[in-house]
Amino acid sequence: MTYLNDICDDLTTWKFDDIPVAAIATAKRALIDYFGVTIAGSQHPDVQGTARLASGNPGLATVLGTQVGAQPDYAALHNGFAAHIFDYDDFSIINHPTAPVAPAAFAVAEARHGSGAEVLRSYLLAGEIMYRIGRTCLPFTSDQGWHTTGVFGVLGASVAAALSAGRSTPEVAAALGIAASEASGLRGNFGSPVKAYHCGMAARTGIWCAELAGAGLQPSASILEGVDGFFQLFGGLEPNTISYPSSATWSILEPGFNFKRYACCSSMGPALDALLESEAVAALNAEDITAVHVGQSPWSFKELIYHSPTRAAETKFSMEYAVAAALTFRRADLEIFNDDSFLNNDQIRPLMEKVRPRVDEELARREFTSDAPVKIDIELRDGRSIHLSRDFAKGNVRDPLTDEQVVQKYRSLAAPVIGENRAESLLNGLRELENVEDVAALFRS
């Protein structure tokens, strides 16, 4: 047997009732968060092109935030893109796990009038397969400049689409093997809408892979672990050295998913928390500050590529802007990273010039993590210094958002777009998703 067959034979045999209750509960939290960020993201100007494409390909899958039904692949393209456009969606140690996978699972299931339990099973099993493959490859994938959400996301989306379509285990394996040749996404597109498109790209392509598998297309059986296979090219691993280790653990629980409070790269979350929660910082004026030294891990430093952003989309990947905005506006909400007027504020540029990010030697010695630990030293004109540090942001699995905080985030994002009544109806359906007989009904109320 090969890794491809082993992982699918192991995990796709799990029935819904075999999945831990805690994993299902966390999945529903993630999907509530997903629908909130996606419905809000559907209104973003950069996403309107995919909405028009979807409307030109009518079908039964809902294009979120619109009144349009589209073919599943076009709905998944739009919804995945919209889910990530604000960079406000959940994340894990390997990637943004929900934005590329949930759109594929829902689009295919809705077109088939599948149940909520089937969607939850597809989403969870696809995410688990994606995690186990992706974790084997990291940090090499990221170090090479790949956007791991695009690279690993298409793997998860292919499995989700195949399971939601009721494909057999060999067909799920074929879809996953085909998806291995579709894996892509370049970190050089961070700060542009193409970064968010990677999620829609993965979701759409995953559906195609599942359809091709159903039509009989077969990949190489050793495409993951073999010569010039996925693990060699995306993980830097020697061919034919990786075998599948079955496990009863669930990655959605351990190491878990993290939920965001800020609509920007997760590598800035701990810094924003440290600055916004400090009473000493709250008492400062911009003119009091002579320099702000920000020590980061090498992985966080690599992601934050805009040191002098020129548009709002770039501010999501700029530690200089994040620090200056927190010090200037004392907040870091959705507007701060999506409205050019904040970037063009007269106080921001002079303060950004005082922010000096660097790789911290101690943080560089730590193991690869998605936590984005940070050390901040603020030098003041009177000779004093303020020292702050934070190992992870609020919303991390070790300091999670409450259920009510997740719901509040959802309501704040969804209700302005679809109205309070529809937002509450959808929320209630998601809370009881395992009992929904036809997921299409979620979007028709």
Short description:
InterPro entries: MmgE/PrpD_sf, MmgE/PrpD_sf_1, MmgE/PrpD_sf_2, MmgE_PrpD, MmgE_PrpD_C, MmgE_PrpD_N. The protein has 445 residues and is an alpha+beta fold.
Q: How far apart lie the N and C ends? A: 47 Å
Taking pLDDT < 50 over at least 5 consecutive residues as the criterion, the unreliable ranges are: none
Nearest-angstrom radius of gyration?
22 Å
Could you estimate the helical fraction of the residues in percent?
Answer: 40-55%
SSE pattern, N- to C-terminal: HHHEEHHHHHHHHHHHEHHHHHEHEEHH
Strand order of the largest sheet: 4-3-5-6
In the CATH hierarchy, what is the class of the largest domain? Mainly Alpha
Multimeric status of the protein:
single chain
- The gross shape turns out to be globular
Structural class by secondary-structure content: alpha+beta
Beta-strand percentage? Answer: 5-15%
For the largest beta-sheet, the strand count, sense and barrel status come to: 4 strands, mixed
Number of individual domains: 2
Put simply, the count of helices is 22
Q: Overall mean pLDDT score?
A: 96
CATH superfamily (homologous) name of the largest domain: 2-methylcitrate dehydratase PrpD
If you consult CATH, what is the topology of the largest domain? 2-methylcitrate dehydratase PrpD
| Overall CATH architecture of the largest domain | Orthogonal Bundle
Number of strands: 6
Protein name: MmgE/PrpD family protein
Domain MmgE/PrpD N-terminal: 7-236
InterPro entries: MmgE/PrpD_sf, MmgE/PrpD_sf_1, MmgE/PrpD_sf_2, MmgE_PrpD, MmgE_PrpD_C, MmgE_PrpD_N
Domain MmgE/PrpD C-terminal: 262-426
